[in-house]
Amino acid sequence: MTDVTNLEERFQARIDAEQKIEPKDWMPEKYRKTLVRQISQHAHSEVVGMLPEGNWITRAPSLRRKAILLAKVQDEAGHGLYLYSACETLGVTREKTIDDLLSGKAKYSSIFNYPTLTWADIGAVGWLVDGAAIMNQVMLCRTSYGPYARAMVRICKEESFHQRQGYEIMSVLAKGTPEQKEMAQDALNRWWWPSLMMFGPSDANSPNSADSMKWKIKRQSNDELRQIFIDRTVQQAEVIGLTIPDPELKWNEATKHYDWGAIDWTEFNNVVAGNGPCNKERLAARNKAHDEGAWVREAALAYAAKKAKKQAA
Amino acid sequence: MSAENSNNWPLWEVFIQSKRGLEHKHVGSLHAADAQMAIENARDVYTRRQEGNSIWVVPAGAISSSQPDDAAMLFDPADDKTYRHPTFYVMPEGAKYI
Ligand SMILES: [Fe+2]
Ligand SMILES: [Fe+2]
Asked: Is the Cβ pair B28, A24 closer than 8 Å?
């Protein structure tokens, strides 16, 4: 019974029957490792993703926009927590996971290594970056690992306003003065291609995908999700009168999808390798926050210990 | 549950009652120095959209759980006892309110 082949067969049979895998269940080591890598990267992305938006909280153009942006950034902190918790159920400590981010060993979504130069970037991030993330997250609500799926359901519930508030910002700017419209278009120009890269390498160059599909960690390929995102977003850009910065973009009557130009994967690989515009800044900001919070963590522990001692006496 | 390093905040499991009269339901976990802080943090991360009426926090290490390998022993005996369900019984034609 404890023969590994036998265990693997039972594991796969459970997945094929659409049953969730829970923390105490037997699982192949590679399944566990894949999940630890994916969930922790996802958690880090939520946390680092707060930085480009936090950049505009103090400069939001109205109290309404400021309250919304604060609420959104606070949501992202929560998303990070839900995912770190899910990751912990796989037997890695929170400290180890966070240390891997701080040391630069762990990856996070490359998109957050781009700067938010104008207020319109906050619109573009919500509309495109959260929009692309949602495509992935909706799929992951049905992922095979129970704690990950439950975290995603919670996240998706909260995520739906993020994309809408961003699109609203873009639509207001696009209807504004010529300068405001130009600002919105400029933000779209800069965020469009990095957003498409968020879905990851094309299927032909995605080495880990086969296992992830077999184990139902993923259920749709990178290219499938990217295509749906493009089809939806092109229509939304049309509605607010902005132009997708891709001269090759055109409707294909035969496939009923948009055809689009080639992604510059050299740029993608460069940013992943640490050479994006903000890689160093993001990591430095995380490390600074962690170091400056050390005394809070220590003081809270000391206070808890003191209280416990008093209670025992 | 792994032993907590004394230099780190322990792990707490969080249960939220969404409405008076309903059960407390497990929603997730978080780290906090003590129970009070766990409740405050749970309020910040798990009840930002009026999901909460009451919060329980339990040290994760205090929870004992059954093992997946014992599932058959524990739960299979109920499989062949369909007479525990009302639909098992044949009621005479025409009888009402039963
Ligand atoms: Fe998020
Ligand atoms: Fe978001």
From this structure: no
